[in-house]
Here is the input.
Amino acid sequence: MREFFHRKLERKTISLVVAIVAVASIGGFVEIAPLFTIHKTVEEVPDMRTYTPLELAGRDIYIREGCYACHSQMIRTLRDEVERYGPYSLAVESKYDHPMLWGSKRTGPDLARLGDKYSDAWHVAHLINPRDVVPQSVMPKYGWLQRNELDFSKLGLNLAAQRSVGVPYTQEMIDNASKDAYGQATPDTDAASGVSERYGEATNVRVFDGDPARVTEMDALVAYLQILGRLTDAAYKQSASADAPTPVGE
Amino acid sequence: MPQRADAAALSYRDCVSAKIKCLRYYRQQKKRVSRDRVSLLFMGDNDMISQLTSTERQYALVILVLMSLCGLVMAAGGRGDPLGVHGFVVLAFSVGLAFVLISGFYAPQPDPEQQTQYYDDPTKVGIALTMAWAVFGMFFGVWVASLLAWPDLTFDQAWSSFGRMRPVHTTGVIFGFGGNALIATSFHVLQRTSRARLSDQLSPWFVLFGFNLFCVLAVSGYFMGITQSKEYAEPEWYADIWLVIVWIVYFAIYLRTLARRKEPHIYVANWYYMAFILVVAVLHIVNNLAVPISFGSAKSYSLFSGVQDAMTQWWYGHNAVAFFLTAGFLGMMYYYLPKHAGRPIYSYRLSIISFWGITFFYMWAGSHHLHYTALPQWVQTLGMSFSAMLLVPSWASAGNALATLNGAWHKVRDDATLRFMMVAAVFYGIATFEGSFMAMRPVNALSHYTDWTVGHVHAGTLGWNSMIVFGAFYALVPWLWKRESMYSPKLVEVHFWLALAGAVVYVFAMWNSGIIQGLMWRTYTENGVLAYSFLDSVEAMHPYYIARAFGGLLFLTGTIICSYNIWMTVRAGKALATDNDAEGDIPVFARNAVQAGE
Here is the structure.
């Protein structure tokens, strides 16, 4: 009787190793590689903008504090989600998100369309003590954000690294990163004018944390929260147009 | 007749039947037992350093000096950045180990006779580290669980907020507890099933301590806010690079020891351990591709963005479950369960089917984490389909394990150690069924983003991973330290019921909260508007969050009891009487040599 082929395979270490790697590689390759080559994967929209240095700093704070562990930024194509949070998320909306923050758990609500939903003052009060404004909340307090001044020293490096992974920051943006971050949170200084010049008139330039004297981590985080879902209008336009795919019912 | 015999069955039979009398060996063993009893602290033990040859001691010193230099460079280059703090951590770690090494540097050369025995010192230290991380990781688990019921238990400190401590818990238990258990048991299983001693004495230590350095960097980083935000891949670029180096050495140990094996066939457990090492390397490298903002900063940005990044992350995330928490632990199960039950694996063919099924199907399943998202539909559908197919190899493994117990069920009733392993196999079956079920799009629409996912994960980690580790350790500790039994079989029994009760309370609490949450989010009133605000669902979770923290506390208590029991077994356990099958527990060629000499 011929020997069962597997009994030969399991006598040869290298064959076994090669077989394991080959068999395990197929799935990931078939599912991931086409996402980079099929153009339909990410919608093309002309108005998609990048984060300003202050917003990017806020995003890095969002990552540092692990906000993604309890808040998703991905509205699914389900009726109740669209009615609760707004138009479902498009791939293009996280096109410049290195890394993405889609999240996996909603201990708190989805934040994909948080921008402009609440005032800056509400956010500041909520972050300092969530239970002051939402008594039932189980969110931690983030008082130190208001106490810590924002570190401007590495913002140029941040933008440069973002550019090297594909985000279209210009050299001018990189050179002025610290100044623009400062300017975006201090509208009455000279630094403020450059922000709208480089990032568009629609950019929020204001005192986010209620304290014009200092630029804090709170300024950065609130600036980031207020831009969530506002980098492009594509999702709103798509949900308004008649031939948009209807979200799946519950 | 299909050949059912495999290495474990063989080596078991050998252990039972081969009664080898070698007085010299006995004497040595006795001496070692008494020395072990004195040297309670595993590290800083001259006895362990004296097992290294002088060349190995020199190499170890060179490696530690290089690591210290790396630490210095990081500390200098990362001034004013958390990277600098980590530089000092690396420096302290390496200098500390160097001191231990130097203290035993001029100890006498090891007896060449040691080459005729298995090399178990790294496994022993690995067991101690596993239990330390288990207590640490589960303590933080109970803490973060309590934060969701009582959010102000943070003392208004940044390091103790939920977002920073949650990865401390996940990394502590998955990598600290699970990873150390895998490394410790893999060294033991590899030698027994190959009937060969590890290839050298230095590289196992490098892997063990190197891996623990990685865990320390990871966890201390989260407290300071260093994270990539990728779930279960949070450590930053320098820690990731370090893990790759450690992993290459780990794999080299496997290859080199297998090359010395005296058993023609590579045993099933080793297929799984190898798949674990190989595929985790691939996943780790691809998912952690990132660009640091400078070499003087801990911060980096991932190479991929948006939808591609999400797919890569969950390809990694799901297969970290597959190859870290499943394949590696199946390796553990395939050795310790048949060995402790005294039964050969039920079906050789079933183990082949399940091995290749798991290796192939799992890698497609990651996209089920992204149902109804901006990920293209075709990828979601592939993920769902393969998740359904995955049930076949998963249940083949669980069934194979349970059928192996046929003829030994009376032992399951009487012996809590075997019961741990049996319950692990049952939970493995439950969790994999649940996983395939939750991967179906309509089910996922309800379960995703809710506590149901958390409950599912813990059915796997508490019910399967932890239970199989506890079972394996309760079998392994008396073997390794040559004890008649665990210090207190009664405490093993207590631990079993605490762990089972804790896991069941936890999982039921999360099933309830998850399904309630999911239903509340999608319930409409008669007028066609959403019935509940998000906050209503938060309020509804409160009792379940308390129950969950309580379940976790029960489980943690069991783990502490287990650590105590292991500690006391090493310290005060009754030494094995000489005439026992343990003397067969030496590499096969050594055994022949001994016989030839008689």
About this structure: The first helix of chain A runs from residue 5 to 9. Chain A touches chain B through 90 residues (CB under 8 Å). The mean pLDDT of chain A is 93. DSSP finds 13 helices and no strands in chain A.
